[in-house]
Specification:
The protein is an alpha+beta fold. The chain has two domains: about 70 residues, no CATH class; about 140 residues, Mannose-Binding Protein A, subunit A (Mannose-Binding Protein A, Chain A, Roll). Helix content is about 35%, strand content about 25%. The strands form two sheets. Strands 3, 4, 5, 6, 7, 8, 9, 10 and 11 form a nine-stranded mixed beta sheet that branches. A hairpin with a 6-residue loop joins β7 and β8. The chain is elongated and about 75 Å long. The termini are far apart.
Length: about 240
């Protein structure tokens, strides 16, 4: 009886010790690594003290993977921005240029009008003056009547290249942000104005230049924008 009692007593001690050990620290296998899993009390104490013995290789791998993808996207964005900032070089990439059909695509008001258009939006007002200046007396054009406006819209739509369905072009017209008066290149009040939407003109001290929008769905109208920004081209005029 004494031997049996002693055996049972030591067995209970071993079981109790084993259970206490398993409650304090257990081990779990995670991707081949043995990570200690603490009891709830130990875990809360560790977090309150700002300490942690956890390892998270999967989380770190995910973070590194995301960082690599962000770097790749940023590099692509930088390349696209470099292309947008590049000056116009028609001789280097003639496929971008939509050539005019003749010396004068529209003749009206004793003036010759033509459209210099590109499939990409890369024409600022500085470029616009250079493009129009290729012909004697060439300058950014104004719109002088409703009938003239319709002719220009028809010309613009003929320059739209697939897959694009719209085109933006600069005009020689400006808007006074204080008075909201639109003027021609000479500074006289514009005889014709048609805004694209009720939100225009946009109130912004830099948005002083007028450009014209048209698409294949017959939407059209004036918008005001910063002249250092780029559009698809410029409507030009010169004396006949």
């Amino acid at each position: 009886m004494d031997v049996i009692a002693i055996t049972i007593f030591f067995g209970l001690l071993l079981v109790g010790s084993s259970r206490g050990s398993s409650r304090s620290i257990e081990c779990a296998e995670f991707d081949g690594d043995i990570i200690p899993i603490f009891s709830k009390d130990q875990e809360e104490k560790s977090l309150l003290n700002g300490e942690s013995d956890y390892e998270a290789p999967v989380i770190m791998d995910a973070i590194n993977d995301i960082a690599a993808k962000v770097d790749l996207v940023n590099s692509r964005v930088d390349r696209l921005l470099d292309q947008c900032r590049a000056p116009i070089r028609e001789e280097e990439d003639p496929s971008l240029h939509v050539a005019s059909s003749g010396d004068c695509e529209i003749e009206d008001f004793g003036l010759c009008f033509w459209l210099e258009a590109y499939n990409s939006r890369n024409v600022t007002m500085l470029n616009a003056w250079e493009l129009c200046g290729k012909r004697p007396g060439g300058r950014p054009a104004s719109i002088y009547s409703a009938g003239h406006y319709i002719k220009i819209l028809q010309l613009m739509r003929s320059k739209i290249l697939r897959p694009k369905f719209y085109i933006y072009i600069w005009l020689g017209m400006k808007i006074n942000q204080w008075s909201k008066v639109v003027t021609t290149l000479e500074g006289t009040n514009a005889p014709f104005v048609r805004w694209y939407a009720p939100m225009y003109p946009i109130r912004n001290s830099r948005y002083t230049q007028i450009y014209l929008y048209a698409d294949i769905t017959r939407k059209n109208g004036f918008m005001n924008f910063d002249p250092v920004k780029a559009t698809n081209g410029i409507m030009c005029e010169t004396m006949i």
